Task: inverse folding
């Protein structure tokens, strides 16, 4: 059975510099998959290439539909939400306005208000800050807002790029608990790029390991944690 997201022989470049050397992924519907690797391995580039944000070659298929020739906006319409590194909130707009922008591509406008309230249910602090400019939020609150805005498009697959970066441990704990809830309660698939390999493997059921733009190992989280060379290189033991 094919995965929800199938990536085959994906090559991606920034200008004349080739970053991805022909990677292949198979992401099953309803699962959480981690994409691991050192800085510069190509993790962020992989998410951007899937979303059509840079020059790419190869096959990218989502729910049986080729999307590798589609624009970023079209890919979002198909049901892929992307939370980029650096969060990317609109700093001069309020929390509520940021969430409304997350639904800009939707046609079912009658349900947008209900979804805003659902986001506030996941992240109560955002409701308290609903009229506050996003640029004045703490780092953790901005990350919550970035996730909430992505959820407003009602994605079936969520791409998360370094969501724990720069956040306090207790914020990371709460945020990752929400990711698990989104997966278990709403069936949203997640492809997670995360520098903290232990944290990622505790959440994910499957993982891919990238080195210099290539997949060098893939397997279940247990298999990766039991692999001696992977454990020494990425898990510190």
Result:
């Amino acid at each position: 059975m094919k995965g929800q997201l199938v990536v085959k022989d994906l090559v991606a470049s920034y200008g004349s510099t080739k970053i991805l050397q022909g990677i292949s992924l198979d992401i099953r519907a309803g699962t959480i998959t981690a994409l691991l690797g050192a800085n510069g391995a190509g993790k962020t580039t992989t998410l951007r290439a899937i979303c059509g944000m840079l020059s790419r070659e190869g096959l990218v298929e989502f729910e049986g539909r080729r999307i590798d020739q589609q624009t970023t906006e079209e890919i979002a319409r198909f049901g892929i939400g992307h939370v980029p590194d650096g969060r990317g909130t609109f700093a001069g707009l309020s929390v509520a306005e940021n969430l409304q922008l997350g639904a800009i591509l939707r046609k079912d406008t009658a349900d947008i208000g209900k979804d805003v309230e659902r986001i506030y249910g996941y992240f109560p602090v955002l409701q308290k800050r609903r009229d506050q400019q996003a640029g004045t939020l703490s780092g953790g609150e901005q990350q919550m807002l970035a996730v909430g805005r992505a959820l407003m498009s009602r994605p079936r697959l969520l791409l998360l790029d370094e969501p724990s970066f720069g956040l306090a441990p207790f914020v990371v704990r709460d945020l990752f608990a929400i990711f698990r809830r989104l997966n278990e309660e709403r069936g949203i698939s997640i492809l997670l790029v995360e520098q903290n390999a232990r944290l990622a493997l505790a959440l994910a059921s499957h993982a891919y390991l990238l080195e210099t733009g290539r997949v060098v190992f893939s397997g279940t989280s247990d298999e990766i944690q039991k692999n001696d060379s992977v454990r020494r290189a990425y898990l510190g033991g």
The CA atoms of residues 83 and 160 lie 5 Å apart.
